[in-house]
Design brief:
Blueprint lengths: L3 H10 L2 H12 L3 H10 L8 H14 L8
Length: 70
């Protein structure tokens, strides 16, 4: 697990269109798709799986995305 400061830095470095897509996937409860998207986005350096998952978790908290099944 990465620290929140580096996760926030990753988020801040993303282009707006990628941020929009990450948020769409997070609100659709598709964290695995977030990981795939970030790994294939051509970012340098490419975020690892743990970093990508941490970003999906951070955005879920910030967007107040509840559990998929209640």
């Amino acid at each position: 697990m990465t620290d929140e400061t580096s996760t926030r830095a990753l988020w801040d470095s993303l282009p707006e269109d990628l941020r929009t897509e990450v948020d769409r996937l997070v609100t659709a409860h598709q964290p695995a798709s977030v990981i795939k998207l970030l790994r294939k986005a051509g970012l340098t350096p490419s975020p690892g799986i743990a970093e990508s998952r941490d970003l999906a978790d951070l955005r879920a908290r910030e967007l107040n995305v509840g559990p998929r099944f209640g």
